[in-house]
Amino acid sequence: MLEVSNLHSAYGRIEVLKGVSLEVRTGEVVALIGSNGAGKTTLLRALSGVQPITGGEIRFFGTRIDRLSPHRRVERGVTQSPEGRQVFGPLSVEDNLRLGAYMRRDGEIESDRERVFAMFPVLREKRHLVAGGLSGGQQQMLAIGRALMGKPKLLLLDEPSLGLSPILVDQILAAIVALKASGITVLLVEQNATAALEIADRGYVLETGRIASTGAASVLLSDPKVKAAYLGAD
Ligand code: ATP
């Protein structure tokens, strides 16, 4: 589905992605892990088109998308749900979801909103309230829900568990598993590497702008080097 080859990206003269290659196959959840500053967010932003690249190629279903605007990439089915609380605070939950569907002209918007509400019931309860009044976890759910309203084929998730309590982290992870079951492919960036690999099919370890390791999630989970560097003591 997604093939990234030899991707480079820089902030001014500082190169942050130094030749990243990876692939995501249809139906997979792929975890991207790595330390702070490794370039994970930059990579997702390059895939969604908001971060310029200085070299390499991004192919989606075989077609190059690296010169398309973010908007055109969303139309093709590549959608990023941003890190943190980037929902539209003054707007209601419902209006935030509606904005996620702004490019669609099909008749399934209502039923997709119902699916989001089924996945995150608290959003249904609070549909008429302003997004800015939601808790951090609820805003994260709303950010994912908004991305889903664009009918993505590939969902790019940046740190969906950031700042959430363990119960909410579990809820978000369960939602990602449900997304996969509903046919959405996911590329997941997570600080919480163990949790990410536990729900992923495969993983990539990004180290200072390069892929240092890759494999089946279960293999990475038991890899001593990965364990020592990213999975904490256990
Ligand atoms: P984190 O988990 O901390 O978000 P990350 O792996 O997502 O880390 P990036 O946010 O992609 O890493 O950052 C990679 C490097 O690029 C870091 O050294 C960071 O300081 C630098 N960087 C990120 N954004 C900018 C920016 N807008 N301008 C300049 N440098 C930046």
Automatic annotation (TrEMBL):
<dbReference type="Pfam" id="PF00005">
    <property type="entry name" value="ABC_tran"/>
</dbReference>
<dbReference type="InterPro" id="IPR003593">
    <property type="entry name" value="AAA+_ATPase"/>
</dbReference>
<protein>
    <submittedName>
        <fullName>ABC transporter ATP-binding protein</fullName>
    </submittedName>
</protein>
<comment type="similarity">
    <text>Belongs to the ABC transporter superfamily.</text>
</comment>
<keyword id="KW-0813">Transport</keyword>
<keyword id="KW-0067">ATP-binding</keyword>
<keyword id="KW-0547">Nucleotide-binding</keyword>
<dbReference type="GO" id="GO:0016887">
    <property type="term" value="F:ATP hydrolysis activity"/>
</dbReference>
<comment type="function">
    <text>Involved in beta-(1--&gt;2)glucan export. Transmembrane domains (TMD) form a pore in the inner membrane and the ATP-binding domain (NBD) is responsible for energy generation.</text>
</comment>
<dbReference type="InterPro" id="IPR052156">
    <property type="entry name" value="BCAA_Transport_ATP-bd_LivF"/>
</dbReference>
<dbReference type="InterPro" id="IPR027417">
    <property type="entry name" value="P-loop_NTPase"/>
</dbReference>
<dbReference type="GO" id="GO:0015658">
    <property type="term" value="F:branched-chain amino acid transmembrane transporter activity"/>
</dbReference>
<dbReference type="GO" id="GO:0005524">
    <property type="term" value="F:ATP binding"/>
</dbReference>
<keyword id="KW-0029">Amino-acid transport</keyword>
<dbReference type="GO" id="GO:0015807">
    <property type="term" value="P:L-amino acid transport"/>
</dbReference>
<dbReference type="InterPro" id="IPR017871">
    <property type="entry name" value="ABC_transporter-like_CS"/>
</dbReference>
<dbReference type="InterPro" id="IPR003439">
    <property type="entry name" value="ABC_transporter-like_ATP-bd"/>
</dbReference>
<feature type="domain" description="ABC transporter">
    <location>
        <begin position="2"/>
        <end position="233"/>
    </location>
</feature>
